Amino acid sequence: MGRFMKRYSAPGSVPGSFVDRAPEGPRAALEVIVYAPDTYRRFEISSLDKLPDPTAGKVTWLNVAGLDGDVLQRLASRFGIHPLVMEDVVNLGQRPKVESYDGYLYVVLDLVTWSEDEMQVEREQVSLLLLEGLVISIQERPGDVFDPVRERLASAKGRIRGVGADYLLYALLDAAVDHLFPVLESVGDRIEDLEDGLVEEPSREHLGTLHSIKRDLLGLRRSTWPLREMTARLARGESEAFAAETVIYLRDVADHAVQVLDLLESFRDVVSGLMDLYLSSVSNRMNEVMKVLTVIATIFMPLGFIAGLYGMNFNPAASPYNMPELGWRYGYPFAIGVMATVAAVMLFYFYRRKWL
Predict the structure, then answer these.
(1) How many CB atoms lie within 10 A of CB 22?
(2) To bridge 228 with a disulfide, which of 94, 100, 257, 273 should be the other Cys (CB 3.0-4.6 Å)?
Protein backbone atom coordinates (compact mmCIF):
# COMPACT_ATOMS: atom_id res chain seq x y z
CA MET A 1 0.00 0.00 0.00
CA GLY A 2 1.55 3.26 -1.09
CA ARG A 3 -0.23 5.68 1.19
CA PHE A 4 -1.60 5.05 4.64
CA MET A 5 -5.32 5.87 4.65
CA LYS A 6 -7.31 6.08 7.85
CA ARG A 7 -10.59 4.20 8.08
CA TYR A 8 -13.18 5.87 10.28
CA SER A 9 -16.40 4.67 11.79
CA ALA A 10 -19.50 6.04 10.15
CA PRO A 11 -20.91 9.01 12.07
CA GLY A 12 -23.59 7.86 14.48
CA SER A 13 -22.73 4.17 14.16
CA VAL A 14 -23.12 1.80 17.08
CA PRO A 15 -19.91 1.68 19.14
CA GLY A 16 -18.10 -1.63 18.86
CA SER A 17 -19.80 -2.81 15.64
CA PHE A 18 -16.48 -3.78 14.11
CA VAL A 19 -17.57 -6.73 11.94
CA ASP A 20 -19.49 -4.59 9.46
CA ARG A 21 -16.44 -2.40 8.92
CA ALA A 22 -13.92 -5.20 8.40
CA PRO A 23 -12.58 -4.88 4.85
CA GLU A 24 -13.48 -7.53 2.31
CA GLY A 25 -10.65 -9.74 1.19
CA PRO A 26 -9.18 -13.23 1.44
CA ARG A 27 -9.61 -15.17 4.64
CA ALA A 28 -7.08 -14.34 7.33
CA ALA A 29 -4.02 -16.57 7.66
CA LEU A 30 -3.61 -17.96 11.19
CA GLU A 31 -0.13 -18.89 12.36
CA VAL A 32 0.54 -20.35 15.80
CA ILE A 33 3.80 -20.70 17.69
CA VAL A 34 3.81 -22.59 20.98
CA TYR A 35 7.04 -22.69 22.94
CA ALA A 36 8.64 -23.41 26.27
CA PRO A 37 12.28 -23.72 27.35
CA ASP A 38 12.49 -27.21 25.82
CA THR A 39 9.57 -27.08 23.36
CA TYR A 40 8.92 -25.28 20.08
CA ARG A 41 6.10 -25.78 17.58
CA ARG A 42 5.14 -23.61 14.64
CA PHE A 43 2.09 -24.44 12.56
CA GLU A 44 -0.90 -22.95 10.75
CA ILE A 45 -4.54 -23.50 11.56
CA SER A 46 -7.61 -23.10 9.37
CA SER A 47 -9.89 -21.78 12.12
CA LEU A 48 -9.73 -20.57 15.70
CA ASP A 49 -11.46 -23.75 16.83
CA LYS A 50 -8.14 -25.54 16.29
CA LEU A 51 -6.17 -23.08 18.41
CA PRO A 52 -4.83 -24.90 21.48
CA ASP A 53 -5.71 -23.42 24.84
CA PRO A 54 -2.82 -21.72 26.66
CA THR A 55 -1.22 -24.13 29.12
CA ALA A 56 0.93 -23.52 32.15
CA GLY A 57 4.63 -23.32 31.43
CA LYS A 58 4.09 -22.61 27.72
CA VAL A 59 3.60 -19.41 25.71
CA THR A 60 1.37 -19.23 22.65
CA TRP A 61 1.72 -16.65 19.90
CA LEU A 62 -1.19 -16.34 17.49
CA ASN A 63 -0.54 -14.20 14.42
CA VAL A 64 -3.62 -13.17 12.41
CA ALA A 65 -2.67 -11.86 8.95
CA GLY A 66 -5.75 -10.18 7.48
CA LEU A 67 -8.73 -8.30 8.86
CA ASP A 68 -11.31 -11.06 8.44
CA GLY A 69 -14.56 -10.04 10.14
CA ASP A 70 -15.60 -13.59 10.95
CA VAL A 71 -12.22 -14.48 12.44
CA LEU A 72 -12.12 -11.28 14.48
CA GLN A 73 -15.61 -11.90 15.82
CA ARG A 74 -14.69 -15.44 16.90
CA LEU A 75 -11.48 -14.11 18.43
CA ALA A 76 -13.33 -11.50 20.46
CA SER A 77 -15.91 -14.04 21.60
CA ARG A 78 -13.39 -16.68 22.66
CA PHE A 79 -11.05 -14.43 24.63
CA GLY A 80 -13.54 -11.83 25.81
CA ILE A 81 -12.01 -8.93 23.90
CA HIS A 82 -13.99 -5.72 24.24
CA PRO A 83 -15.82 -4.65 21.05
CA LEU A 84 -14.23 -1.20 21.21
CA VAL A 85 -10.81 -2.84 21.03
CA MET A 86 -11.83 -4.85 17.99
CA GLU A 87 -13.24 -1.68 16.46
CA ASP A 88 -9.80 -0.07 16.79
CA VAL A 89 -8.31 -3.16 15.15
CA VAL A 90 -10.33 -2.77 11.94
CA ASN A 91 -10.38 1.04 11.87
CA LEU A 92 -6.93 1.69 10.45
CA GLY A 93 -4.89 4.75 11.23
CA GLN A 94 -5.10 4.46 15.00
CA ARG A 95 -2.68 6.49 17.04
CA PRO A 96 -0.05 4.22 18.64
CA LYS A 97 -1.26 3.59 22.17
CA VAL A 98 -1.48 1.10 25.01
CA GLU A 99 -4.66 0.34 26.95
CA SER A 100 -5.21 -1.91 29.94
CA TYR A 101 -8.38 -3.98 30.22
CA ASP A 102 -9.56 -6.59 32.65
CA GLY A 103 -7.37 -9.61 31.92
CA TYR A 104 -5.43 -8.34 28.93
CA LEU A 105 -3.37 -5.49 27.51
CA TYR A 106 -4.00 -3.89 24.13
CA VAL A 107 -1.22 -2.24 22.10
CA VAL A 108 -1.52 -0.72 18.64
CA LEU A 109 1.32 0.65 16.52
CA ASP A 110 2.53 0.93 12.93
CA LEU A 111 4.87 -1.44 11.14
CA VAL A 112 7.01 0.73 8.89
CA THR A 113 8.86 -0.66 5.87
CA TRP A 114 10.71 0.75 2.88
CA SER A 115 9.53 -0.08 -0.64
CA GLU A 116 12.43 -0.26 -3.10
CA ASP A 117 10.02 -0.44 -6.04
CA GLU A 118 8.03 2.65 -5.07
CA MET A 119 10.96 4.38 -3.32
CA GLN A 120 8.75 5.41 -0.44
CA VAL A 121 7.76 4.51 3.10
CA GLU A 122 4.89 2.08 3.64
CA ARG A 123 3.02 1.67 6.89
CA GLU A 124 0.78 -1.05 8.22
CA GLN A 125 -1.20 -1.06 11.44
CA VAL A 126 -0.63 -3.97 13.81
CA SER A 127 -2.57 -4.68 17.00
CA LEU A 128 -1.06 -6.69 19.87
CA LEU A 129 -3.01 -8.34 22.66
CA LEU A 130 -1.29 -9.70 25.77
CA LEU A 131 -3.23 -12.27 27.76
CA GLU A 132 -2.21 -14.88 30.30
CA GLY A 133 0.34 -17.04 28.46
CA LEU A 134 -0.88 -15.76 25.07
CA VAL A 135 0.09 -13.00 22.64
CA ILE A 136 -2.15 -12.21 19.68
CA SER A 137 -0.88 -10.06 16.80
CA ILE A 138 -3.37 -8.84 14.19
CA GLN A 139 -2.05 -7.42 10.92
CA GLU A 140 -3.68 -5.95 7.84
CA ARG A 141 -2.02 -8.41 5.47
CA PRO A 142 0.65 -11.13 5.40
CA GLY A 143 4.25 -10.05 5.85
CA ASP A 144 5.80 -8.24 8.79
CA VAL A 145 9.09 -7.40 10.50
CA PHE A 146 8.85 -10.11 13.15
CA ASP A 147 10.98 -12.74 11.42
CA PRO A 148 13.97 -12.06 13.73
CA VAL A 149 11.72 -12.87 16.70
CA ARG A 150 10.58 -16.10 15.03
CA GLU A 151 14.19 -17.06 14.37
CA ARG A 152 15.13 -16.45 17.99
CA LEU A 153 12.24 -18.62 19.11
CA ALA A 154 13.16 -21.41 16.70
CA SER A 155 16.85 -21.39 17.62
CA ALA A 156 16.28 -20.73 21.34
CA LYS A 157 18.71 -17.81 21.25
CA GLY A 158 18.75 -15.56 24.28
CA ARG A 159 16.24 -15.83 27.08
CA ILE A 160 13.06 -15.50 25.04
CA ARG A 161 11.96 -19.15 25.42
CA GLY A 162 12.59 -19.17 29.14
CA VAL A 163 10.36 -16.24 30.07
CA GLY A 164 6.69 -15.35 29.84
CA ALA A 165 4.36 -13.88 27.25
CA ASP A 166 5.13 -10.33 28.40
CA TYR A 167 8.70 -10.75 27.15
CA LEU A 168 7.37 -11.90 23.77
CA LEU A 169 5.30 -8.73 23.53
CA TYR A 170 8.42 -6.73 24.38
CA ALA A 171 10.34 -8.56 21.62
CA LEU A 172 7.66 -7.69 19.06
CA LEU A 173 7.68 -4.04 20.12
CA ASP A 174 11.46 -3.99 19.97
CA ALA A 175 11.48 -5.49 16.46
CA ALA A 176 8.94 -2.92 15.23
CA VAL A 177 10.86 0.03 16.70
CA ASP A 178 14.31 -1.19 15.62
CA HIS A 179 13.07 -1.70 12.05
CA LEU A 180 12.58 2.05 11.86
CA PHE A 181 16.36 2.55 11.73
CA PRO A 182 16.97 0.82 8.35
CA VAL A 183 13.90 2.62 6.99
CA LEU A 184 15.36 5.95 8.10
CA GLU A 185 18.70 4.93 6.60
CA SER A 186 16.99 4.41 3.22
CA VAL A 187 15.26 7.78 3.56
CA GLY A 188 18.61 9.37 4.43
CA ASP A 189 20.26 7.85 1.33
CA ARG A 190 17.46 9.26 -0.80
CA ILE A 191 17.93 12.68 0.77
CA GLU A 192 21.68 12.60 0.02
CA ASP A 193 21.06 11.67 -3.62
CA LEU A 194 18.52 14.47 -3.88
CA GLU A 195 20.95 16.96 -2.38
CA ASP A 196 23.61 16.04 -4.94
CA GLY A 197 21.11 16.46 -7.76
CA LEU A 198 19.95 19.83 -6.49
CA VAL A 199 23.50 21.12 -6.31
CA GLU A 200 24.42 19.92 -9.81
CA GLU A 201 21.26 20.68 -11.79
CA PRO A 202 17.89 21.32 -10.08
CA SER A 203 14.77 20.22 -11.94
CA ARG A 204 11.04 19.75 -11.47
CA GLU A 205 11.64 16.03 -10.88
CA HIS A 206 13.77 16.92 -7.88
CA LEU A 207 10.96 19.08 -6.54
CA GLY A 208 8.53 16.16 -6.82
CA THR A 209 10.99 13.89 -5.01
CA LEU A 210 11.41 16.50 -2.31
CA HIS A 211 7.67 16.66 -1.68
CA SER A 212 7.49 12.86 -1.60
CA ILE A 213 10.18 12.71 1.08
CA LYS A 214 8.40 15.37 3.10
CA ARG A 215 5.20 13.31 3.02
CA ASP A 216 7.10 10.22 4.14
CA LEU A 217 8.72 12.07 7.01
CA LEU A 218 5.39 13.54 8.06
CA GLY A 219 3.82 10.09 8.12
CA LEU A 220 6.74 8.69 10.10
CA ARG A 221 6.46 11.49 12.60
CA ARG A 222 2.76 10.79 13.08
CA SER A 223 3.65 7.19 13.89
CA THR A 224 6.73 7.84 16.00
CA TRP A 225 5.66 10.76 18.18
CA PRO A 226 2.90 8.84 20.03
CA LEU A 227 5.10 5.72 19.93
CA ARG A 228 7.62 7.52 22.14
CA GLU A 229 4.89 8.36 24.61
CA MET A 230 3.56 4.80 24.59
CA THR A 231 6.94 3.13 25.13
CA ALA A 232 7.78 5.65 27.85
CA ARG A 233 4.61 4.65 29.73
CA LEU A 234 5.53 0.98 29.51
CA ALA A 235 9.13 1.70 30.55
CA ARG A 236 7.90 3.45 33.69
CA GLY A 237 6.19 0.22 34.74
CA GLU A 238 2.68 1.67 34.64
CA SER A 239 1.26 -1.63 33.36
CA GLU A 240 1.03 -4.62 35.70
CA ALA A 241 1.05 -6.94 32.69
CA PHE A 242 4.85 -6.74 32.49
CA ALA A 243 7.18 -8.29 35.01
CA ALA A 244 9.81 -6.09 36.62
CA GLU A 245 12.54 -7.88 34.65
CA THR A 246 10.77 -7.09 31.37
CA VAL A 247 10.27 -3.43 32.24
CA ILE A 248 14.05 -3.00 32.22
CA TYR A 249 14.12 -4.12 28.58
CA LEU A 250 11.22 -1.84 27.74
CA ARG A 251 13.40 1.09 28.73
CA ASP A 252 15.70 0.20 25.85
CA VAL A 253 12.73 0.26 23.45
CA ALA A 254 11.72 3.67 24.77
CA ASP A 255 15.27 4.92 24.26
CA HIS A 256 15.28 3.69 20.67
CA ALA A 257 11.96 5.43 20.03
CA VAL A 258 13.50 8.70 21.22
CA GLN A 259 16.50 8.17 18.94
CA VAL A 260 14.22 7.54 15.97
CA LEU A 261 12.30 10.72 16.68
CA ASP A 262 15.55 12.70 16.92
CA LEU A 263 16.64 11.35 13.52
CA LEU A 264 13.27 12.26 12.08
CA GLU A 265 13.54 15.83 13.31
CA SER A 266 17.05 16.07 11.85
CA PHE A 267 15.84 14.80 8.48
CA ARG A 268 12.95 17.26 8.50
CA ASP A 269 15.40 20.11 9.07
CA VAL A 270 17.59 18.83 6.23
CA VAL A 271 14.61 18.57 3.87
CA SER A 272 13.53 22.10 4.75
CA GLY A 273 17.06 23.23 3.93
CA LEU A 274 16.89 21.34 0.62
CA MET A 275 13.77 23.27 -0.30
CA ASP A 276 15.66 26.51 0.29
CA LEU A 277 18.58 25.06 -1.70
CA TYR A 278 16.26 24.23 -4.60
CA LEU A 279 14.77 27.72 -4.65
CA SER A 280 18.24 29.28 -4.43
CA SER A 281 19.59 27.04 -7.19
CA VAL A 282 16.67 27.86 -9.48
CA SER A 283 17.07 31.56 -8.74
CA ASN A 284 20.83 31.46 -9.36
CA ARG A 285 20.29 29.58 -12.58
CA MET A 286 17.77 32.15 -13.71
CA ASN A 287 20.20 34.93 -12.79
CA GLU A 288 22.91 33.30 -14.88
CA VAL A 289 20.57 33.02 -17.85
CA MET A 290 19.44 36.62 -17.49
CA LYS A 291 23.05 37.76 -17.19
CA VAL A 292 23.99 36.05 -20.45
CA LEU A 293 20.94 37.47 -22.21
CA THR A 294 21.70 40.94 -20.85
CA VAL A 295 25.28 40.76 -22.06
CA ILE A 296 24.14 39.67 -25.53
CA ALA A 297 21.54 42.44 -25.68
CA THR A 298 24.07 45.01 -24.44
CA ILE A 299 26.61 43.99 -27.09
CA PHE A 300 24.09 44.17 -29.91
CA MET A 301 22.80 47.61 -28.90
CA PRO A 302 25.76 49.60 -30.39
CA LEU A 303 25.97 47.13 -33.28
CA GLY A 304 22.33 47.76 -34.06
CA PHE A 305 22.93 51.50 -33.83
CA ILE A 306 25.78 51.31 -36.33
CA ALA A 307 23.81 49.06 -38.68
CA GLY A 308 20.77 51.34 -38.45
CA LEU A 309 22.87 54.43 -39.08
CA TYR A 310 24.42 52.97 -42.18
CA GLY A 311 21.09 51.65 -43.32
CA MET A 312 19.52 55.11 -43.76
CA ASN A 313 20.93 55.26 -47.32
CA PHE A 314 21.28 59.07 -47.64
CA ASN A 315 22.50 60.10 -51.10
CA PRO A 316 26.18 61.19 -50.75
CA ALA A 317 25.88 63.19 -54.01
CA ALA A 318 23.35 65.56 -52.49
CA SER A 319 25.62 66.57 -49.60
CA PRO A 320 29.16 65.73 -48.42
CA TYR A 321 27.68 64.98 -44.97
CA ASN A 322 25.33 62.26 -46.28
CA MET A 323 27.20 59.01 -45.63
CA PRO A 324 30.35 59.44 -47.67
CA GLU A 325 31.27 55.87 -46.88
CA LEU A 326 28.43 54.64 -49.08
CA GLY A 327 30.49 55.47 -52.09
CA TRP A 328 33.75 54.23 -50.59
CA ARG A 329 35.15 50.95 -51.88
CA TYR A 330 35.96 49.69 -48.37
CA GLY A 331 32.92 51.17 -46.65
CA TYR A 332 31.20 47.82 -45.96
CA PRO A 333 34.30 46.04 -44.55
CA PHE A 334 35.01 49.18 -42.52
CA ALA A 335 31.52 49.10 -40.95
CA ILE A 336 31.81 45.37 -40.15
CA GLY A 337 35.23 45.96 -38.61
CA VAL A 338 33.89 48.77 -36.43
CA MET A 339 31.12 46.48 -35.19
CA ALA A 340 33.52 43.63 -34.42
CA THR A 341 35.87 46.02 -32.60
CA VAL A 342 33.05 47.44 -30.48
CA ALA A 343 31.86 43.92 -29.58
CA ALA A 344 35.39 42.80 -28.65
CA VAL A 345 36.02 45.89 -26.51
CA MET A 346 32.74 45.39 -24.66
CA LEU A 347 33.44 41.67 -24.02
CA PHE A 348 36.91 42.53 -22.72
CA TYR A 349 35.42 45.18 -20.43
CA PHE A 350 32.78 42.76 -19.08
CA TYR A 351 35.49 40.18 -18.46
CA ARG A 352 37.69 42.63 -16.56
CA ARG A 353 34.73 43.63 -14.41
CA LYS A 354 34.03 39.90 -13.79
CA TRP A 355 30.54 40.16 -15.20
CA LEU A 356 31.14 37.07 -17.33
Answers:
(1) 21
(2) 257
